[in-house]
């Protein structure tokens, strides 16, 4: 389907002349830099951070592009993937006029970002087994709908969305379809990045916060048609990825194999955790997971949650989310952490008898 980002973007964003930073106008590495009012003597503290970072992270995008099999023009970097979520809404949704469509239960930031921007939120629940119903999604689209957010593997349910259903949404909706792949490293399914040439309305989100173990650095990725990437670059804060983060990501990307090793270990522990939860009579359902967490259903989620917290084991209570009655979301920890969790759950259920 033909998608023209310039026809969907808010007109004043299209017309906007972005801030041009000192480091945009002169990009050479060598020189006497008297253009940015930096401190020429160095930095306070043990490390040198006196120069502004590359606003477009060129070197990093080369590395990421090689790893993901896309050109740098298809890559946007954000301060966490929460930043592109917000920027997409700001670029494409007129406050008090347009809407985004989400499929609860799902990641909370789509709704929060929309509400911060005074953009309506249209909600189409997943099926009770957490699968995606493209027919119901497309039927709920109105002329106001600008972006559909899908999450696969989904948070908090852990399941992948069927590719055929995602494709029907991509084909049936003329606006932007965002597929959030924060947990893609934990599945053996391919990323939607490879579908970008077929779907110019597709945006794929990934993050360094989960499998890469770099949540504190705040780095997320959006992959999309260059026309969409240009619009995001136009409205982002100029130096949204700081120099320390850029340097540490460059090192991490050179060691992608250790991410793979950690993923394998987490997946093994996930299976151990699931096998250990299964025989516990108080655990009513363990939902299948393609992520680094497991959603379980129990009879008294609030009491179990509080009991665990009292033993300093912190899980996520999702029982108030639609379709998630009784559900707690448990991140896969280390072997020792999972053992402590299981011991505490056993004590809780033991006390009830
Ligand atoms: C954790 C998570 C994110 C990542 O957020 P960052 O801002 O990159 O840390 C994005 N989407 C989903 C579904 C998540 O669970």
Q: What can you tell me about this protein's structure?
A:
The chain has 353 residues and is of the alpha/beta class. The chain contains 13 helices and eleven strands. A seven-stranded mixed β-sheet has the order 1-7-6-5-4-2-3, sandwiched between helices. A four-stranded antiparallel β-sheet has the order 8-9-11-10, covered by helices on one side. Strand 8 (283-286) and strand 9 form a beta hairpin. Helix 7 runs parallel beside helix 8 and helix 11 runs parallel beside helix 13 (335-352). The structure holds pyridoxal-5'-phosphate. Pyridoxal-5'-phosphate (PLP) binds next to loops.
Backbone shape: globular
- Category by helix and strand content: alpha/beta
Read across the widest sheet, the strand sequence of neighbours is: 1-7-6-5-4-2-3
Q: Rg to the nearest angstrom? A: 22 Å
Portion in helices: 25-40%
């Amino acid at each position: 389907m033909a998608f023209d980002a310039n026809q969907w973007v808010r007109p004043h964003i299209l017309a906007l002349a972005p801030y041009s930073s000192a480091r945009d106008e002169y990009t050479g590495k060598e020189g006497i830099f008297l253009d940015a009012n930096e401190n020429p003597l160095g930095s306070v503290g043990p490390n040198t951070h006196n120069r502004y970072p590359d606003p477009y992270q060129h070197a990093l995008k080369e590395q990421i592009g090689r790893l993901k099999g896309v050109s740098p023009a298809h890559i946007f970097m954000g301060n966490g993937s929460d930043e592109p979520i917000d920027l997409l809404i700001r670029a494409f949704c007129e406050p008090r006029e347009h809407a985004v469509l989400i499929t609860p239960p799902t990641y909370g930031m789509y709704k929060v970002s929309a509400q911060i921007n005074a953009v309506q939120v249209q909600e189409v629940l997943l099926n009770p087994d957490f699968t995606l119903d493209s027919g119901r999604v497309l039927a709920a689209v109105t002329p106001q709908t600008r972006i559909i957010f899908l999450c696969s593997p989904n948070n908090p349910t852990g399941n992948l969305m069927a590719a055929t259903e995602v494709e029907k949404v991509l084909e049936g909706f003329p606006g932007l379809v965002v597929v959030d792949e924060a947990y893609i490293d934990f599945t053996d399914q391919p990323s939607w990045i490879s579908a970008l040439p077929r779907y110019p309305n597709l945006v794929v989100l990934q993050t360094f916060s989960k499998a890469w173990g770099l949540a504190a650095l705040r780095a997320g990725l959006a992959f999309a048609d260059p026309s969409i990437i240009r619009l995001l670059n136009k409205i982002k804060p100029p130096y949204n990825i700081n120099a320390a983060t850029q340097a540490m990501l460059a090192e991490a990307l050179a060691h992608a194999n250790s991410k793979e090793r950690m993923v394998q270990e987490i997946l093994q522990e996930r299976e151990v955790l699931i096998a250990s939860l299964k025989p516990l009579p108080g655990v009513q359902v363990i939902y299948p997971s393609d992520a680094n967490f497991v959603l379980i259903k129990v009879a008294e989620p609030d009491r179990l949650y509080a009991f665990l917290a009292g033993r300093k084991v912190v899980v996520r209570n999702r029982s108030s989310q639609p379709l998630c009655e009784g559900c707690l979301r448990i991140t896969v920890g280390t072997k020792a952490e999972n053992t402590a969790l299981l011991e505490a759950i056993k004590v809780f259920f033991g006390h009830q008898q």
